[in-house]
Design goal:
- It is a single chain.
- The protein is globular.
- Helix content is about 30%, strand content about 25%.
- By secondary structure, the protein is of the alpha/beta class.
- The mean pLDDT is about 90.
Length: about 300
């Protein structure tokens, strides 16, 4: 067996958040279709929260929802292997030092380069502007400006066309990253303590956790891979595909962005949906429309399945 189905590393969540089980249900289905190994990957590393507090409940909820994976993979158990990937990127000249100006708040939630502020996703900003200052939404402190050496990742010889998305229209969305990644760089170090340190040119850098786990595909030996995540995580999917190409140029990987079901909470009072995991799986699979980024859950499908 030389095929793998993998989730993008997922944060443990409450077992009643059924929207978070769309990806695992799709992964299990693909596993059965393609006779592949399904790795359920979990993101435990976090600079601000202890995600292991809900890990047991999360793993139990996978069982309760009858999610059949072959292996579970935790980023926290693979730090050394992930750091080896970063060392390989350094050796192949994808990572280097630069001097840059950055803004940082007192709690460390906000840490952003001055040159990157204009390209931030406005919907997910962790800061606001007040009286001409950048202010952290979490701690309320004014972000101070620093001149620092930072580590950056530059994919100098990779073509965006080598990174393949399905559905195909997501490849057009990936063009957004030409200016901010392909023709620029990604900052991979942090001024705050992330718990992950790496020595470069006699300086210890705190490595960004999201970048660290994004190298994970290089640690799976299967030739063919399908990586599955919701289509609101396109940047993260793009980054893991890009890093795999840097670490394994001959990789044959598809990045699958699943549709987002917008009103799953509206049908959680249906007894069949709540009590029967097989019914729940089928009702989610039957609702997916791959030509759309978002799809309202069609409650008539519940009636169709009941009658079947």
């Amino acid at each position: 067996m030389n095929r793998a189905i993998l989730t993008l590393p997922m944060m443990p969540v409450d077992g009643n958040n059924y929207g978070k089980f769309v990806t695992p249900i799709i992964c299990e289905t693909l596993r059965n279709i393609y006779d592949a190994i399904y790795y359920h990957c979990v993101n435990l590393l976090d600079s601000f929260n202890d995600r292991e507090l809900i890990l047991e409940n999360y793993v139990n909820s996978l069982e309760i929802n009858n999610i059949k994976y072959d292996k579970i993979w935790y980023d926290k158990d693979n730090i050394d292997a992930l750091l080896d990937n970063i060392k390989k990127l350094i050796k192949n000249n994808y990572i280097h030092e630069i001097n840059s100006y950055l803004y940082m708040c007192d709690c460390g939630i906000v840490e952003i380069e001055e040159s990157k502020i204009s390209s931030c996703n406005q919907q997910n900003l962790k800061f606001a502007y007040k009286d001409g200052n950048i202010v952290c939404k979490c701690c309320g402190s004014i972000c101070k400006k620093y001149n620092e050496k930072i580590l950056v990742f530059s994919p100098y010889d990779i073509k965006r066309e080598d990174i393949k998305f399905l559905p195909r229209f997501l490849n057009n969305d990936a063009k957004t990253y030409d200016s901010i990644v392909m023709n620029s760089y990604v900052t991979i170090s942090r001024k705050r303590d992330t718990g992950i340190k790496l020595k470069y040119n006699n300086t210890y850098y705190n490595i960004d956790i999201d970048f660290l786990w994004a190298t994970y595909l290089a640690n799976f030996s299967e030739n063919e891979k399908i990586i599955v995540s919701g289509n609101r995580m396109i940047y993260q999917l793009f980054l893991v595909g890009l890093l795999e190409k840097c670490l394994n140029p001959k990789s044959n990987t598809i990045l699958l962005g699943t549709p987002y079901l917008t009103n799953l909470k509206d049908i959680t009072n249906d007894a069949n949906f709540i009590n029967d995991p097989y019914f729940r799986k089928l009702s989610i699979l039957f609702n997916l429309k791959w030509a759309k980024k978002e799809k309202n859950y069609d409650t008539t499908i519940l009636s169709y399945l009941k009658n079947s």
